[in-house]
Structure formats: C-alpha cells, structure tokens
Design brief:
13-stranded parallel beta sheet, mainly beta, 13-stranded mixed beta sheet, Pectate Lyase C-like
C-alpha cells in the first residue's frame, strides 16, 4: 500500500513540474552512461560518421544512443541512401532519395542540413531514419501533410515533424498503408493532427512525443488492429481519437494536459485501453457513440474533470484501474451492461454517477468488488438518476454488493 501512495506522489510531482533536480541528475547519469558507451563502441559510435560506408553498420547504434531508446524492426538487406551531410552523392532532399530508392532500402538523413523544408511522400517499403530526433527536422512550411505514407511495411524514426497545413485536417504524419512502424519521433508544434491513420490495419506507433498540435495528437479512422504504445501525448486539443476503428490496442502511453478528451473512442468496438497514465484532461477516457466490447484496464486516471465517461455505449468492461482525484471518477450516461470491477475509486469529488433512460427495464450495470476510498463491510450504494418522462429524472440506486477491503494493484 505504501508503494501505491509513493507511486502516485511521484506521478503528481512529475506532472506538476516539480522534478527539475531529478532531471539534472538524470542528465548527469546519462552523460556517464554515454561516455561508457562511446569508450566501448569506439569512434564510429561517437563521431559524426561522415564516412557513408560506416553508416549502414551503425544505424542501430544511433537509435540506441538516443536519450530515450526505442526499437525499430529495420530491414537492412537493401541499399543505404544518404540525405544531407558531406558525403559524395548524398541527396539534398529527402523526397529525391525516396524517388531513387527501391523497396527494402534504408534512407539515412543527417541533421546538419536540417530543417528539411518539404512535403515527403513515402510510396515504397523503406526505412527512413533520422540522425537525431531532436535535431533532424522535417517542416512542410505550413502546407499540406508533412509526411504521407502510402506504401506498406514502412519504418520511420528519428525525426521532429512539424508545421503541417491547417486545412482539410493536415497531419504531421498521414498513414494510408498497412504494417508500418512509426517510432521514436517528435511530432510536435503546429501540426493540425499529429498522426492520422485512415483505413489501415496492423500499424505500430510507439515511443513518439506528440505534443502541442492544434487539433488532435492522433486520429484513427476506419482503422483496425493497430498498436499504440509508449507514446507521450501532451498539450493537444484532443489526445487520441478513434472513430469506426476496431481491435486496436492503446497501451502504456502518457496522455496528459490535453484540452478535451485524453482518449476518445467513438463508434468503435473490441479495443483495449490498458496501462496508460491519463491525467489533467477534461475527460480522461471517453467511450461514446454506441461503442461496445471495449476493455479499459490497468490505467492510472487522475486529476481529470471526468476520469472515465461512458455515453450511450453498452457491454464494456472497466476493471483494475486507479481512478483518483478527479471531479467525477466514473460517469455512466445511458449506458448499460457495463462491468465495473476491481477498480480503486479514491478521493474523487464524486466517485461514480449514472443516468438511465428506461425505467423499470433490465438495463443496469454490474458493480463488483471495487475499492471505495476506505474498507467497507456493507454494500456500497451508487447514486444516480433514472429518466421517467420529459424533464423528469427520479433518484435511483445501484449497489456494489461486495466492495473491497483494500486497494487493488493495477490490473487485478
């Protein structure tokens, strides 16, 4: 139990900006680790690698040496082309290198010629790798999508991608393909959408920083079986939005300080939302539009106006979450057959509320074994309202008949 409180204290400190000293210590530690890696790896890992013949053997080392390591499943069987830098035959534009590449090739982009002011269309199955994600910048100059992926099996990593156009919902990265991997990028500042995934299956979006985009950090529309993991999605209008998208996994992300929803699921079924930190949004996690059979589990949901909100959506499961310090922990509006099990409801102003449309019908939800701020031996009443007639709601009560005596560990 002590560990649980310590974890949440740390989270609050991090997200209220009180970790400056820790950051300084981490930078010092990182410098020591980097020096050790340089000694072990030799000059090839430490230098600028201006000799192109050495790049192919060191692409993965560049990835490992980033401050926040991430893994990219690279196919290095093809040729390697170079953009920027001083090598003979290097391209000056990313698009020129793509036009001259073949499926399976790798394009390595140096940061010393950054920013690259262009709109990039990836229409071949290639690896597009930036030298350093903080300093290798693709900027569309406020026109159109910055990067468009139309080919399957594309890997893109190591870039800052910024300044898309603002009309027609332009994106930092527009994905119109299958089985691609977007990893270890900064999708930041002044895109209309950070990442837009339309009519796609089987893509992986991992370890990106998606920050300060004008509309949504990420949108999936008519896209199934995609995996969204380990991203930081912060200070957008919306965090992640799914529409007409099924079977996706949203796991292990930090979703914080977005103006409206952190995660918004609309008209989408069988999605898994697990092990995320969702904090300081207007609505932490929202299920709506008749979304069914979604699972929300193992999340830390705190300091939102509404922690979890379900609107006109049935047959969803909410279990094993830590729901803390929200104005309303869980709100159920005209939603039925929801399983609410083994959650920790702690110090929300309103722990849980509901409104129902149909009086006298079998349209209740299942509250089972949740922890309600303190140990309870008797059933816990959950108060709500039931619609009776226009402009009239009568009080209504449901019960958690076996409330927990202690907080659960996440995911229990």
């Amino acid at each position: 139990m002590i560990r649980v409180y310590v974890l949440h204290i740390i989270i609050i400190m991090v997200y209220w900006g009180k970790n400056n000293m820790k950051q300084k210590r981490n930078k010092k530690l990182l410098g020591i680790v980097f020096c050790i890696m340089v000694i072990v790896s030799g000059p090839a890992a430490a230098g600028h690698l201006s000799n192109n013949t050495r790049i192919k053997d060191n692409v993965e080392k560049y990835i490992i040496l980033e401050k926040e390591p991430y893994s990219v499943p690279l196919n290095l069987d093809g040729n390697t082309l170079y953009v920027g830098g001083s090598g003979p035959g290097n391209f000056s534009k990313i698009q020129d290198a793509i036009d001259n590449a073949s499926n399976g090739d790798t394009i390595f982009v140096y940061d010393d010629s950054s920013p690259y002011i262009e709109n990039v269309i990836i229409n071949k199955s290639i690896n597009l790798i930036g030298e350093k994600r903080h300093s290798t910048i693709i900027d569309s100059g406020g026109s159109g999508d910055v990067v468009i992926i139309t080919a399957n099996w594309v890997n893109i990593s190591g870039f800052t991608i910024q300044n898309s156009g603002g009309s027609d919902f332009n994106a930092g990265i527009y994905v119109g393909s299958n089985h691609s991997t977007i990893s270890g990028n900064n999708i930041i500042e002044n895109n209309w959408l950070g990442i837009a995934v339309y009519y796609c299956i089987g893509n992986t979006i991992t370890s990106n920083k998606i920050i300060a985009n004008r509309w949504s950090g990420m949108v999936l529309y008519h896209s199934n079986d995609n995996t969204i993991t380990s991203n930081t999605i912060r200070s957008n209008k919306f965090g992640i939005h799914l529409g007409y998208s099924n079977g996706n996994t949203i796991k292990g992300n930090i979703i914080i300080s977005n103006d409206d929803e952190g995660i918004n699921i609309q008209i989408s079924n069988n999605n898994t939302i697990a092990d995320n930190i969702v904090s300081k949004n207007e609505q932490g996690i929202n299920l709506g539009g008749h979304s069914k059979y979604n699972t929300v589990s193992g999340n830390i949901v705190l300091l939102n106006e509404y922690g979890i909100r379900i609107y006109e959506s049935n047959n969803n499961a909410i279990w094993g979450n830590a729901i803390r310090w929200n104005m309303c922990g869980l709100s159920l509006l005209y939603s039925y057959s929801t399983i609410i099990k083994h959650n920790n409801f702690i110090r929300n102003i309103f722990q849980a509320l509901f409104e129902y449309y149909l009086p006298g019908g079998n349209f209740s939800n299942c509250w089972d074994g949740n922890y309600w701020n303190r140990p309870r031996l008797l059933p816990k009443p959950i108060f709500g309202w039931q619609y009776v007639e226009p402009k009239r709601f009568d009080p209504y009560i449901e019960f958690d008949r076996s409330p927990a005596l202690r907080p659960f560990r996440l995911g229990e």
